[in-house]
Automatic annotation (TrEMBL):
InterPro entries: 23S_rRNA_MeTrnsfrase_RlmA (IPR052939), Methyltransf_11 (IPR013216), SAM-dependent_MTases_sf (IPR029063). The keyword Methyltransferase applies. It comes from the Bacteria. Pfam families: Methyltransf_11. This is Class I SAM-dependent methyltransferase. GO terms for molecular function: methyltransferase activity. Keywords: Methyltransferase, Transferase. Residues 53-139 form the Methyltransferase type domain. It comes from Nonomuraea salmonea.
Length: 251
C-alpha cells in the first residue's frame, strides 16, 4: 500500500505552485517529450539574433536554460509570483523582465525584435507579435494542442464537446496577421500520474485543465481517483504539443 489519501492531499494541496518548474512531480508523474527538442532549438535560434522577446515567460525557467542570450533579451509575465522568480533568474544574465497584463497591447514599439518566442502560451496575440517583429524576424513557439490531458479533464468534468487550440487555426491566425508559417509540427504524448497528489499539484498549477479546481470542491472525485490508482496503477492521459515557426516578410 502507498501513502494515505489524506496524507497525499495535505501535501499536494499546500506545496507552492509558483513558477513553471515541474520537478516536484519527479517520480510521481511523467510525460513524454516532443521529438523536436524545443529547448535545444530555442538555444540555436537565440544564438543567431541581436534581440529577442519571450512572451509569458512564467518563472523564466526555459529562457534561463538558453546557453547564449541575445544582447537585448526581454521577457514578459503577468502573475506576480512568477514575475519575481523570472526576475531573479534572468536579471543576473542581463535580460529585462517586464510586467504585462496578459492581454494586448504588448508594451513595445513596432518592429523592435528579431525573434519572439513563447513556450505554452495561454493565448497567442498574433497581430501584436507581427507588430513587434522586425521584417525578416520570426515567431518561434511550442504550444499546447487540442485535447491536452483531456482524460483528466473528463474524469472531473465529464465529456467535453468543444476543443480549442487547433493546429490549423494557429496557422490561419498567423497568416491573417501577415506572417508566413515555415514550419508546423504536432505530436501526441503519453502522460502518467502515479498518485493523487501528483494530480492535485498538476491541477493547481495548470489551472485551465479543470477550471475552478480545488481540493474541497472535488474531494469525493479525488478519493475515487486515489482508489483507482491504488487498484489499477497510474492514471494515463495524453498531451498534445505543436511547434510553429512563422516569419515576418521583408518588404
Amino acid at each position: 500500500m502507498g501513502r494515505s489519501f489524506d496524507d497525499l492531499v495535505q501535501e499536494a494541496g499546500t506545496v507552492s505552485v509558483a513558477g513553471w518548474d515541474f520537478s516536484w512531480l519527479d517520480g510521481r508523474a511523467s510525460e513524454e517529450r516532443p521529438s523536436w527538442g524545443y529547448s535545444r532549438l530555442l538555444g540555436e535560434r537565440m544564438a543567431t539574433v541581436r534581440s529577442a522577446l519571450d512572451v509569458q515567460t512564467g518563472g523564466g525557467e526555459v529562457l534561463a536554460g538558453v546557453p547564449t542570450l541575445p544582447p537585448v533579451t526581454v521577457a514578459t509575465e503577468s502573475w506576480p509570483p512568477n514575475l519575481r522568480l523570472a526576475a531573479a533568474r534572468l536579471r543576473p544574465r542581463g535580460a529585462w523582465v517586464v510586467h504585462d497584463d496578459d492581454e494586448p497591447r504588448l508594451p513595445f514599439a513596432d518592429a523592435v525584435f528579431d525573434l519572439v518566442v513563447s513556450r505554452h502560451p495561454v493565448q497567442t496575440w498574433w497581430t501584436e507579435i507581427a507588430r513587434v517583429l522586425r521584417p525578416g524576424g520570426a515567431y518561434f513557439s511550442q504550444q499546447i494542442g487540442p485535447r491536452t490531458v483531456g482524460e483528466l479533464t473528463e474524469f472531473f468534468l465529464g465529456p467535453q464537446r468543444s476543443h480549442t487550440r487547433d493546429v490549423g487555426a494557429a496557422r490561419a491566425a498567423a497568416e491573417a496577421a501577415g506572417l508566413e508559417v515555415v514550419d508546423l509540427r504536432s505530436e501526441r504524448l503519453r502522460m502518467e500520474f502515479r498518485d493523487v497528489g501528483a494530480v492535485i499539484y498538476f491541477l493547481r498549477k495548470v489551472i485551465w485543465t479543470v477550471p475552478g479546481f480545488s481540493v474541497e470542491r472535488y474531494h469525493d472525485r479525488l478519493r475515487e481517483l486515489h482508489e483507482l490508482i491504488e487498484a489499477q496503477g497510474p492514471f494515463v492521459a495524453h498531451s498534445a504539443r505543436f511547434l510553429i515557426d512563422a516569419r515576418k516578410p521583408i518588404g
